[in-house]
Design goal:
Distance between the termini: 35 Å
Shape: globular
CATH topology: Rossmann fold
Radius of gyration: 19 Å
CATH class: Alpha Beta
Number of domains: 1
Structural class: alpha/beta
Bound molecules: S-adenosylmethionine
Largest sheet: 9 strands, mixed
Order of helices and strands: EHEEEHEHEHEEHEEEHEE
Number of strands: 13
Helix content: 10-25%
CATH architecture: 3-Layer(aba) Sandwich
Number of helices: 6
């Protein structure tokens, strides 16, 4: 893991106004004009196991132009439910930094890691705003960003993290670096990918404090007309690592590729996949007796 600082970002910005992620140009803004720092006032936090955000959320610097990024409503809900101000939140596949922006707004200390140095520049760009809420005792949290591999979080101590919120590649569906970056798990075939996810699960277990939560968003795919349940197979890696499952939340998908004209499924005999899973795992306390049916599959 190599720490990339705000100063590194400022130096990078002098010669780079954009980065290329999976063939898509992502602009580095440098400075931001922000209208709102939170969801619209009438937004109520989620209360059921089905989440749907037709309006994906565009407060602060959330602009959604990083391929496969998640709606900021996801980290916001998980952070507010499972952590407190001043806690340490980790996103070890941070992409464009959605989780860290929410950490900054919600006063959680945050660590963001990504295998792709350009992703970390996007994250630092999204964090490059001033937040000074009038009313409160707000204290700017500590936010650290690293280029590194989620399978080996060498700079993070055992049991030092209060909450993990992360969003891995869905195996090979979006090839983030198109084989350019060694260690990018979106380069792997399904079996290798699941082995990588097991290492990520083990590392998540190591760094998380006991009795704390790890939330991940993960989806499925089809191949040759078969449904490939990537999500459940990833869930299995986390259970095998020792986690227990607290929640399986169905997240409805809007604006999927198929809505933009590239989906040919209507000519076939299967349905368009329009949901993903948010699994919330808990690391059991030492000596806790967990019910057999809620942990490791056998
Ligand atoms: C689905 S994206 C995350 C998007 C993020 N939630 C956001 O809102 O922008 C997955 C990220 O995992 C990163 N990644 C792939 N392999 C990795 C690895 N071995 N370690 C850390 N990050 C990795 C990719 O570079 C990509 O940015």
């Amino acid at each position: 893991m190599k720490e990339i600082t705000h100063e590194d970002y400022i130096t990078f910005l002098k010669n780079n106004k954009e980065v290329l992620i999976e063939g898509h140009r992502v602009k580095l803004h440098g400075s931001w004009k922000i209208g709102r720092y939170a969801p619209k006032q009438d937004y109520m936090l989620e209360g059921t196991t089905v989440w749907s955000f037709p309006d994906r959320g565009d407060w602060a610097t959330h602009i959604g132009d990083y391929r496969g990024n998640f709606s900021p409503f996801i980290p916001r809900n998980l952070i507010l439910k499972y952590s407190n101000k001043g806690d340490w939140v980790l996103d070890q596949m941070v992409g464009s930094g959605t989780t860290l922006v929410e950490c900054k707004l919600l006063q959680r200390n945050g660590i963001g890691v990504d295998i792709n140095p350009d992703a970390i520049m996007v994250t630092l760009d999204r964090l490059n705003f001033t937040y000074n809420p009038l009313n409160s005792d707000y204290k700017e949290p500590i936010l650290r960003t690293y280029v590194g591999d989620a399978r080996k979080l060498s700079e993070i101590k055992d049991e030092s993290i209060d909450l993990i919120v992360t969003h891995p590649p869905y195996a090979y569906i979006i090839p983030y670096s198109k084989k350019r970056i060694e260690g990018d798990i979106s380069n792997l075939n399904l079996i290798e990918y699941l082995r990588a996810m097991r290492k990520i699960a083990d590392e998540s277990y190591r760094v998380l404090k006991e009795n704390k939560y790890c939330g991940i968003l993960i989806g499925d795919t089809r191949k040759q007309r078969h449904f490939i349940p990537i999500a459940f197979r990833v869930m299995q890696q986390f259970l095998d690592a020792g986690f227990v499952l607290k929640e399986d939340i169905i997240k409805l998908q809007h604006n999927v590729m198929s809505d933009r004209g590239r989906w040919r499924g209507r000519y076939y005999d299967f349905y368009k996949i329009m949901h993903e899973h948010i699994f919330v795992f808990r690391k059991p306390a030492k000596n806790e007796k967990t019910p057999k049916h809620s942990c490791k599959w056998w």
